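LOG
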Amino acid sequence: MNIRKLIILCVLLFGGISAAAENDSYKSLQALNSDNLAVRFERYLGYLYESQGCLHFTPSDIYLLTQSIPKGTSLQIRPYSNKPADIDLSSVRFFNQTINSREDLEKAKDLFNTGKTKLVVYPSWGRLVILVDGSPFAQVRLLAGMPHNLRLPVYIEKGGPIIWDPMISGPTDAGDYSILASVRNYKSANYRENTIIPFGAVIKYENGRWIFNNGAIWSPVPKNVAADLSLPKNERSYNYYDIVTDNKGMTTSLKWASNDFGKYVLLWTNNGKQYYPEMGYAEGELLYEQSIFVEDLARILTYHGGDDFEELAAKNENFSFYKMLNEFIESNGTIKSAQIDDANASYFKLFNGWTLSNEDLSYMDKRVVDAFNSMKKNELPFFWLSQEETRGLYQFLRLNNMVFRKYAGFYKGIKEDWEFWKGIRKDLKDDFKALNILSASNQKDIAEYLINARLEFWSLSPNVLNRYQRTSISTFFDRQKEDSVFSEREKEALTEILSSTGSASTEDITLYSMDALNDYNFGILLNDMLGNLYKSHGCLHVSPRDSYLLYSILPINTRIKINGYDKKPEAGLFEKTPFLASLVDFEEDVKKLKDTFKNPKDIFIEVYPMSGDWIIFLNKSPFARLRVLGGPRKKMLGVTGRDIDGRPSFSEDRAYPTTPGTFYVLRKDESYISNLYRDTTIVPMGAVIKKLNGKWVFEDTAGRDKPLPAVIAIDLSKKSDEWDFQYYDLVMNDKNELIQARWGSHEFGKYSIITSKNKRTPSPELIHTSGDLMMEQRQLVNDLIKILSAPKDSFDECVNTSQNFDLYRECYNFVSSPEGNYLITPAETGRYKLYFDMPLSSKESSFMPKDAVIAEKILKNKGPLTRTEEDILIDYGIARRTGNKLNIDMEKIYGVDFETFQNVVVIQKYAHHYEVLRARWPELSQMRKAMFLDFKKLLVKDPETLGMFMNRLMIQRVDMKRITQPDVVKLLNSILDVKAD
């Protein structure tokens, strides 16, 4: 069963339509309910197609009549006449304008049953008037039979035989009748093989034969239909829609659209017992046109991208053709696409009196041209059969003209009404976004269903869309009861497709994960969630994502101006400038930007270390921005550790403000090796570290094994909770001993940009991220995947599944209200409160380094130091006394203060992780549910498997890879243990 049918079935199972909307929670439903689509579509459909004597209506009008006109109602069909009707038709409202809901229809039905109702048909004026108690109530547009008998050509071979319809077309019989019955799925004795299959019935190929459904009963299709279905798609004579093919292009199922009498038929009688040969209905061809038109319109309403009608119509094959016909007509035939049949175009020009070329004349059959001239001159042949054939050939031309104008009108009608439909499109987008309906195919099917329901005057209940909010992840994993028929069928359909094709080429698979993940920019999320970038010794720090982007796109000799710490950009100046990460979502985007930035003369970068702004100018206009963090505002010696008594040790390398001035990109290094940090940078970031013959080695960038620096080897000999450095992808042997890991503590991360003032000598300050930031981002990704794949529904329940985010939540709560009790240690909370000058508890105070308290006192000018405080600074090597004067090393004081600040940064960063996750949870939940919906179709109730499914896909997107349908199918195949082709 395909996804389209499953959606419709699901809508029906959950009460998709009702007599009245329960609430107004969906803008698209409100807009569709408030508008009368039947009136619009009456204008769109145009020509109704004459019959061989029956009365033809629009699909919506025949639905109204069959649902409201009671049996036994008097029906009078007047003779054809050029005289005006005896009722002023201009003063009678149209029936479809009075009905916009089931309530309206029920009221009309009650009125017709209680009052004296009469139907009067005026064939020449194309109207049916409903009278109640002698007064006109409403009128309905119709098309009666032709005024004169004629024989319609079924096929004309130029210069060859003409195949004529054996049934004579003629006037609708005048007379007095009464309504006998309203019938759905009428079966005709004359057209049994075409009408035994109900319009819209599903036809499928099963066990070597074609069968169709009539309710719950499946029966073989007639031989003529089976023969037609055996032909290639473009050679079939009958109409079908919703055509489903397998991976070999073979049709597996479709819907029947060649029932001549459509869905609803109004029968009348002249003897009260048997129905009269003539009847009222919507021509099957017209209903087919409406079905295809609605489907195409639904596609246009749900295509991804902007809302420009011309761009959307160009994506649709049928609407592109309709536009060509419209251009042909409006240009009087001077603009003609090769897709328009030459003969039909020439016949159109003939009928409309346009100038014909010799080429036009060569396409047309002389008998058709002669018939046209005879009719225009009113010079019919003497013999009655020749008259009927002449009228038939003229009718052929007239029908050709009407069809041209009808299809051109499809394009023109929607274009004229585009403001209305654009509003519906925007409302649908909003509603689908709120409901997490991400698949374009599903959106199209739902939009199509909504339009068709409104064309039969159903008010759209919120239940049509509400069911998509009822997806509960926790219920799915917790429940023990049998799955619904809908779920089982969906699993069966997906399993069948995956098992038979192992491919993503089939259109039957609707994958939510692919669109949801591809539409989400993880670079923006990670940059936002990462927060503080850590102050450096003077280099410019950027996020891991931005580090890679700058490394990839900036050309050598790019000019960079670094402002002093006294300068910040004017408030709001670059507010509208997009972040660089928002412009890059896939690897191909990086390549495009690299091409855009190929000329360094076009690029200028301005950096404001004080405000943390990095602005990229392209051709003197701000193009993109990113966050940056420079060195400290004051020179300082950082605290590298403390002894058992709390005395600090200080770095030999002074941290200082990033140097202002104009610089140029000198070179770009992957795995930069620093002389100052040689032992920790000679090992490339992410390099494999392994034991070889009992000794630790690492793989350099060329894949060669090199001895691991002693400081790292010694670190690895400790217990993991005592490591000073960071490692990942740990591999243990059967004795639980570490035998392999990857390096995660490269000071400069993976990508570094070296600058120069003179384009020759490297500046000491680099532009880079750090191994710490990369590891932090890696942990965030792991935690994020764990939370998003949790078999829970609520935000807090999902957060509870991650020990790290549980801590981040505690930090968030602490930052929001520091006076409470939290699981964070007193040493951490004390540092935070000390830095922000908040009162500390006695326990928190006991954990504070003495020099940290004194540093805060000095920097916040809280008065002179006591003798004891001075002695502490001297003992800690931060000050010395010369005579009676105390000389404080302020660079060390700033270092001690920075140590306190680093504790603050950790708490704030953790709180920020949680805050961003909470703020972005609605959008992440949409993506989460999308992946779950793809997984759920398989009814595999294993949370670990769900985690694997989400993990594999999300890692690809974090790495800026585009998720493809084969990626998702391959994963689904692996879950089903189905071998992909």
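LOG (cont.) second protein
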Amino acid sequence: MKNHWTKISFVFSVTLLFVIGNLSTNHFLFNHLLAQTEPSRTVRVIATPSSEAKSYQGFFAMDGNAKTFWHTESAKGKIAKPPHELLIDLTAEFEIRGFSIISRQDTSWNGAIDKYEIYLGVDSQNLPRVFQGRLKKTRNPQKLIFDAPIKGRYFKLRSLSEINGKNWASIAELELICDDVRFTAKPLTTLDVLSETLGKSFNPENELAQQYAFLTDNLKERSRFETIANEVYQRDSMILPEDRDPADIVLRRTAALLDDLRQLPDAPDLSAQDKKLKQLAEEVKTIETNDAVKRYDVYEKICKLRRQIAFTNPLLKFNEILFVKRHRAAFNHMCDQYYGINSVSGGGVFILLEPFGNSPKVRNLLEHSIVENGRLKGKKLENGAFVTPDISFDGKRVAFALVECNGDKKQRIHTDVSKGHWDVGDSHHIFTVNIDGSSLRQLTDGTWNDFDPCWLPNGRIAFITERRGGYLRCGRECPTYTLFDMNDDGTMMRCLSYHETNEWNPSVTHDGRILYTRWDYIDRHGSAAHMPWITTLDGRDARAVHGNFSPRNERADMELDCRVVPNSPLQIATAAPHHGQAYGSFILIDPRVEDDDCMAPVKRITPDVAFPETQGGYQVYGSPYPLSEKYYLAVADFTMANEPGAQAQQYVRGDYGIYLIDAFGNKELIYRDAEIGSMSPIPIQSRPIPPVSAIIASNVTENQPYVDPQKEKNLTATVSVLNAYESLFPLPEKTEIKEIRILQMIPMSVPSGKPSHDIGKREPTSPNSVVIPRYVLGTVPVEADGSAHFIAPAHRELVFQAIDQNGLAVQSMRSAAYFQANENMTCDGCHEQKRHTPVTLNKMPLAMKRAPSKITPIDFPGVNPFSYPQLVQPVLDKNCIACHENNADTSPNLAKMPIQNKWYASYNSLIKDYAFYSYGNALRTYPGKFGAYASKLYPILKDGHYDVKLTEEEMRRITLWLDCCSIFYGVYEKDGGETQLLGGVAYPTLE
């Protein structure tokens, strides 16, 4: 054995190969690089790790996809120290000639293995060690060929250390080299285990079998249910201490359903079902829990009775359901899922007839429909992908979005606001059709993605579109899409939201406003806030419903598909991931509950699925449509618990079916297509039309097919602040607020993946996000009682700062506001508590006794547009450089040169230790601990720095820079940045 070991070690030293070049991440492509001949057969193996993180399970190390990877447990308190092991059961004996390893292919090296050992043999409990070695820090494949094949069934890799000395281990791909065989791993799911345990009585393709496996997994999570018990809407939806197996669970939940249905108006007679349920309860008592086959048999009996009971619900008065068939998008990200280039062709718009009967039927709504207008006039919509349907209030018309999936998928990068970014054949467009299939009309077209149509009570249609212009500030080339509306024939478009980041899923509230989701991250964490907002039908008074400053680990990343519950103040939503799609777990939101930036207004409807990404859950549930506070139409795929479908992992089609779901934890499958997902179910019935004011109904005066900053420069709104001293957090003692400074935030006009320059030092809690440049428009006065009354620009995204008696910002927004033309907007204070009644309402605020103030612009350069070279460098040139150059060994360089990071030497010197760019909190601004007050530079200059005596204007320049997060540039574009770097004036493309 000793000689054999020496020989293998020697061979490794001369045969470890590095495949140079770009590694393709297509399935199995690396096999072409590593194997001598293409394998003719595939053997499915079982990979069992000693530790694994959720969504990074052991089987990902051999799934044939280098984008996915195995990673050991990474949650705090659960990290195990090396060694870490990955045991591969080949299911039979094979002659292994060698192996190759590929490290994870993303930007991180966490878990990349350094020292390791290989074991190979026929006895998993007594495997001989056949090799030990070290891996290099490379993302290329590293391959070892043994000098002679070694026969075995079990292959074990043992990671002894990580290249950075951390306690993790990770592998993107491990290939075992064997003549004519390709090994790929499969997850050992609960369905697999139950199939072996229950035998022929258990069909893993059966719906009830999949729910049984899902409940079995839930039973393993008792501790998690205990930790969230106070967040759950109905206790019966949890796993309770008395639950022994799925039969106990469905028995208890069915009883809760039956009891609740008896309380409803027009309640059915359920005495026969009650009698049968009690008989089954007695049967459950007589069967021992270790008699798995009989326990499964009685489980099925209870489920069949549950279905009878569920479909007697008097809320199911409709006999048709609208839905779309479609696949999940090909890219897993909350934004990318709605870019047409990521849509997978297939599906259509359908109606489910007699959904609660014994044999529901499906009608293709567009089977005989011909487009009557536009570019596709005379054609049928037979190909492409269909998303986001909606039904008019009278139940007679359907709106939906379609991408034809026949474009070139190339993105057009430009700053022309009159153009979109895609081929017309790979952009979503909105259509309407009558419920009988007649009058199919195309409402939108062009090179923008237009989707999420929503019928409004004023007769118009709200929708989500890229026509606002701009890109995300983190990650990649992702165009922004926000809220617009239009006439129901596609004319007279209007921008309702001038927000500069993405928005989703408009719906209508009981009082006639638009409820939608917004991604809001001004100078803060980029993955934190994607929560519901609300606005009027004409886009006024946009404000967060709740949760806009929620800590990420305590909440869902996103709340999507928000809808109001009939006859209730509550709202339903899907708790979804940031790096995923619009599926996850369901929640109810109560806007009446004081927002604690946590879970106070939120209750979990489906606690059986944790929040994806933030709490390790899966993308099981989606597109809920509430029938009441306790009953919902929705879609679900319970096998998604084994197929996370998250970013950087393999494509998962999603076999979603339509369900009737209740708050007690019961799920009844209504319809599933085995070939494609069934999504977005909506009852076909009329609904009450919410109220609409006469002003809103008639205030559209011109078409706005895209946002043109030049056409909208002189539009204004009137803003009133009742009391600027009203603050969520206390202001510093003796603070006197004298002014409100108004900043305009500039939408990102170039892709953020590889920006031509960084605007400034990035906020530490969001290092992947480009900082926003801003105009400093000027200030307006604040009266002695804290009130302000002023004219603000409309159709611009604004941030307000409260300025104290020293001319410094004592408070600043980390969200943003915008106003429609001629809007009159009033707010209580600066980040005041939402449900606090201000004392100033008892008397007329001083500012409201006069005409609104006009903004007083700042009278020195470098603020509009922003430019460090014009604002700050002249102060340094005049007062600082000479002394610092004479003391270069001990003083920071405050000159322009050398330029590093495309910033001046002075900026690089000051930003590191003296300026302000870190709030010290990922979400909130604490008054008096921000901007100049939180910097080291301001007190140095204020208290006197040698013989430096700045003028009042020079001091204002420095403090203004600090209050604006110490940014450098005021433009995103390369040409503008080069102009500003030379000290010239350059304006941003978008406003």
